[in-house]
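JOB MANIFEST
job_type = single_chain_structure
chain_count = 1
residues = 182
[input]
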Amino acid sequence: MLTPPAAIEALLFASGEAMEKKEIGKLLKLSPEEVAMALEGLREQLAGRGVALIETAETAELRTSPEASEIVKALRAGELARDLGKAGLETLAIVLYKGGSTRSEIDWVRGVNSSATVRSLLLRGLIERVEDPEDKRRAKYRPTTEALAHLGLTSAGELPRYQELAALTEAASTPEAPAETA
């Protein structure tokens, strides 16, 4: 019988892409807390190996470890090898530090229309478009495991000054309501 970390490793390996943590829990009949504990166990088991567990708030994926990135760079040539540019990095930072943003939130923080930049990040697989749970009529963009792997991270929490900047980005992305007039 497989342990939960081993079962998750098998699922992630077989899928070959990011899996929703809810789906993992459903398939293995585990609670969200049990999934979190099993993922932490898997992360510990993979420490020092060529494969790492990469997580976002909603997904998990097996990828090449950051330590093996130099070896894999020679193999990987393509879209991600090219420079993202200032606009791409700004937009990706907003999405990473907020854990997901609408296009209007990205535009608000950057102060410019970001549609071309968002499209470029989507094409590169660094962000993905999902339905906004707060308003089903609009889309929200969230970071992918590809974005974390591209930056050599295993979670957004490893970003510099993550706690501080995530709070500032959240505050900056919500425009204040105009004052009511009598």
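[summary]
The beta strands are 19-20, 51-55, 59-64, 127-131, 139-143.
Confidence is low (pLDDT under 50) at residues 177-182.
exit_status = 0
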